[in-house]
Amino acid sequence: MAILTETESRYVRALGLMSGLTLALFFFRLIATQTGRYLFVPGNLILAWLALVFGWLLARHMQQSRKLGWGAVVWALLWLVFLPNAWYVLSDFIHVYPTGEISQLYDIVLVSVLVISGLTLGFTSLYLVHKQLLKRLTRRESFMLVEAIILLSSFAIYMGRVLRWNSWDVITNPGVLINVSDRLIDPLGAKRADNVTGLFFILLSAIYISIWVAAAPRKPRG
User: Fold this and answer.
1) Is residue 51 in a domain?
2) What is the pTM assigned to this prediction?
3) What is the pLDDT of residue 64?
4) Is residue 222 part of a domain?
């Protein structure tokens, strides 16, 4: 049995082409300028791909088994930890400013391609999981859960951009979870956290709703 259908394989190749363009632009800049100003590009791209891989593995496990065993829990946790990285790249535009190393327009294009790749990888993984949730929950319930996931991811983007934490800290430095819990208990005590989280939540929700309206599968009857 093939791991991917023909349509899925074509889609993955399309994602690969976008990622390849991102890396090509990055390496050209690296060679042309002899500076490592944008060394974050390959790492962020890899993290975005991990979000898709874990989302696909979770969706595949849910498709093969109606019961949510330990396998689904493990894939779900890994997916939730890495999913924000796919959308975090939106904040990488903060790095784009005149440097004199290369055209600023070139850097805008480089980061734009990275952002398009990351957003596509993240929303694809969310769409795959959402389709499986739709088989177990009502449309309202599944969509509310998806919105909760987007909200958590938006808060994670705040932690990554403002507090400079990353997904690996959950494993290597579990103490960060204490700081996270403090902000969740008293969300109004951190105005910047509210603003950044709310801004990304509105933007990501609007994009995903548009995707879902255009490509939502029909809920199976019975």
Assistant:
1) yes
2) 0.84
3) 83
4) no
